[in-house]
Amino acid sequence: MKKALITGITGQDGAYLAKLLLEKNYLVYGLVRRSSTAEVNDVRLRWLGIHDRVQLIDGDLLDNSSLCRAVRSTEPDEIYNLAAQSFVKTSWQQPLLTSAVTGVGVLNLLEAVRLERPIARFYQASSSEMYGLVQHPVQTERTPFYPRSPYAVAKLFGHWSTVNYRESFGLHASSGILFNHESPLRGIEFVTRKVTDGVARIKIGLSKDLRLGNIEAKRDWGHAQDYVKAMWLMLQQDMPGDYVIATGRTVTVRDMCKIAFDVVGLSIEDHLVIDKTLYRPAEVDILLGDSSKANSLLGWNPEISLETMIREMVEADMKRLTDSNAK
Ligand code: NDP
Ligand code: GDP
After folding, report:
1. Residue 121 has what DSSP assignment?
2. Which atom of ligand 1 is nearest to the CA of 177?
3. Cα(83) to centroid of ligand 1, in Å?
4. Per CATH, domain 191-219+250-286+305-326 is 3.90.25.10
5. Catalytic annotation on 243?
């Protein structure tokens, strides 16, 4: 039985990846940081019905000793580093924390792997945000980076640290440059989930409008369930490497929003309010990825369309809200 250690298992991707690995018969360990509300931080694992099938271990990306202990005690074959302060907007409010967790935290874990378990295969959750002010209209593994937020700067540090540990110490360390991916388990502060939750609230009569910032920004949105498959595939290759994971389609926030309103038969014009205070200090205007490398070397392709995903998210939010209202 293969063993995997997932950091960030309580997050969106961690939960979907844990489910995938359990289906593949892995023993799944998850690193969880201490919380005073531990009874609710496995909410995503519960949603997927796997909370009692994973083994949780205390640890924090900020504490190298806890990572060494986690790696030593679990002896994993594969380590997936998904933990991060992952919200771009917060990274301007908490830049030092973001750098420490999302940037230096990667190095903390790489050091633990190098010292305690160098034969383990390592996955780093890199991000399309590293392209920022895009240097090419379509981004590939060879497109130069131009980060536009403290989050993206920190991700770049984590990305290059992963490449460097591969080249310096021969670790089987791969980096997935994943474009935005969403699901009903996406954090509510991200724009897709904010929109699907907002649309559901309006439909049910709990609110009247939806306030957004820059709706002209364009993103290449996929489904987390598809994207965790790519993470696993990267670690099954003989050679480690870096891969862009994207759908190859870019859509404005406005059009994504329209898809969500259409699901419930409401009109965007009647409910959307632009709030300039939600604009960011520096924006990533457009992202569009080319995942040809992943397609040819991993045989990976996205399967779930934006329309199907947004419908799934709106329906999940309607159900959440009606269930919690009924209580
Ligand atoms: P989430 O924000 O949903 O999950 C982040 C996870 O990191 C949570 O489990 C959180 O724990 C954990 N975490 C935060 N700080 C620490 C810390 N100091 N020590 C240990 N764990 C910590 O992110 P996603 O699942 O959406 O994303 C997974 C990874 O992929 C992240 O690294 C993200 O930056 C990256 N990524 C995501 C993309 C996306 O579109 N979703 C795109 C590209 C990259 P807790 O539950 O306690 O808060
Ligand atoms: P990001 O690409 O990782 O920053 O993911 P987000 O989902 O947070 O944001 C995607 C895009 O939506 C960005 O260009 C934001 O500026 C834009 N956006 C517009 N209004 C909002 C909003 O109210 N919340 C969020 N999170 N993003 C918004």
Report:
1. E
2. 43
3. 4
4. yes
5. no
**Does the Cβ of 176 fall within 6 Å of ligand 1?**
no
User: Domain 3-182+221-245 belongs to what topology?
Assistant: Rossmann fold (3.40.50)
Q: Which residues pair with 62 in a beta bridge?
A: none
Model pLDDT for residues 111-170, shown as the tens digit of each residue: 999 999 999 999 999 999 999 999 999 999 999 999 999 999 999 999 999 999 999 999
| pTM summary value | 0.98
Residue 252's beta-bridge partner residues?
218
User: Domain segments of the chain: what residues?
Assistant: 3-182+221-245, 191-219+250-286+305-326
Query: What is the spatial distance between Cα 312 and Cα 128, in angstroms, rounded to a whole number?
Result: 24
Question: pLDDT tens digits, residue range 156-208?
Answer: 999 999 999 999 999 999 999 999 999 999 999 999 999 999 999 999 999 99
Say how many C-beta atoms besides its own lie within 10 A of residue 305's C-beta: 15
Q: How far is the CA of 191 from the centre of ligand 2 (A)?
A: 5
- 151 labelled catalytic: yes
- Length of the chain (residues): 327
Asked whether the domain spanning 191-219+250-286+305-326 has the same topology as the one spanning 3-182+221-245, the reply is no
Place of tokens 């359990």: 22
Indicate which atom in ligand 2 lies nearest the CA of residue 278: 23
Between the CA of 327 and the centroid of ligand 1 the distance, in Å, is 30
Distance CA 241, CA 46 (A): 33
